[in-house]
Amino acid sequence: MKSLEGDAAQALKGLLEQVPVVKVVGIEQESAGSDHRKVDIVAHVEVSGQRHLLVCEVKSSGQPRHVRMAVLQLRNFLAHQEQQATPVFIAPYLSPEAQALCREESVGYLDLEGNARLLFDSVFIERTVASKPAAERREFKSLFKPKSAQVLRVMLVDPGKAWRVTELAKSAEVSLGHVSNVRTGLLDREWAKVSAEGLFLSDPDALLDAWREAYEPPAGKRISFYTTLHGGAFEEAARRVLGSASSTRHAAFASFSAAHWLAPFARTGTQYLYADEVGVDALRTGLSLTSASKGENVVVTVLKDPVLLQDTVESAPGAVCTSPLQTYLDLSVAGERGREAADHLRREKLTWLT
């Protein structure tokens, strides 16, 4: 933290020195108030001959939960000081959501990427940059990687349900460590809260929005086929294959084909399915599939990790589909028509968001 506070002090000094009417008189690190309460940085500045203080709290994380903690510390410090001052939050990186929270709380902010907003006396500084630290991008994406996603899928079935860590790990079939990491990520972003009963999702809408933006289709081999079966004949044959009696699912309708059964919106000339190795062989036989280098009308993705085939729903006898959540995510990356179909599905089936 000492190194971070030093970097924060230099960033603040550099920003202020870019404003001609501002004179930086001095910057103190870890300054104590009259009642011995401490803040990380106090900047003494002059604006047109008038002295002013910028009181800054520095955190290693700029996630919303840490913003709120810093705001409380700053307000507590300022409440016991006689001299007026402007509170400022500084972190390595502040997301747009964290920046909005600072504005909502009337707290200035600065991050080491260059985002800033300071308002004091007659000075107004605002700067937004598009860059995001690589570590931040990795940490954000890790929240939606397959193992972590298994935890999110379980929680999104009933966002209001409170979970103990061990119970959630068992239901998601992941380690306690994975649940702990997901728990931290959700709490830091204020997508979840902890009650006496356990962890629950407090903002599933924001979680799903973020997942949609970070979503990458599941890994697997995409195989193109052609079949002479169409319309009702195809659906009947597919339902026979998908609904075959088994405790383990080997194939399911996906993307637009799943949406056709879950929340019809737009038809396409191509059928989409997920399968494992057993399932793709069954589909070849049951749907009279032949390999096609072009002109395909059936696309089967043979999943590297077939866990998604256990997260299915049967909307009609034999019509086994990826869950509404998975179908929504797949549609969201399927182009403009897919995004429209995804929005329709969300309104129709993901009613837990309201």
Structure report:
The protein is of the alpha+beta class. The protein has three domains: about 1-125, Trna Endonuclease, Chain: A, domain 1, CATH 3.40.1350; about 135-215, Arc Repressor Mutant, subunit A; about 220-354, no CATH class. Helix content is about 40%, strand content about 25%. The protein has 13 helices and 16 strands. The strands form four sheets. Strands 1-2-3-4-5-6-7 form a seven-stranded mixed beta sheet, with helices on both faces. It has a five-stranded mixed beta sheet with strand order 11-12-14-10-13. α3 links the parallel β4 and β5. The mean pLDDT is about 90.
The major β-sheet equals: 7 strands, mixed
Q: Care to count the β-strands?
A: 16
**Percentage beta strand:** 15-25%
Query: Secondary-structure element sequence?
Result: HEEEHEHEEEHHHHEEHEHEHEHEEEEHH
Oligomeric state, counting identical vs distinct chains: single chain
Q: How are strands sequenced across the largest beta sheet?
A: 1-2-3-4-5-6-7
The DSSP helix count reads: 13
Number of structural units classed as domains: 3
Separation of the first and last Cα atoms: 41 Å
Rg on CA atoms, Å: 27 Å
Apparent shape: elongated
Structural class: alpha+beta
Work out the helicity level. Answer: 40-55%
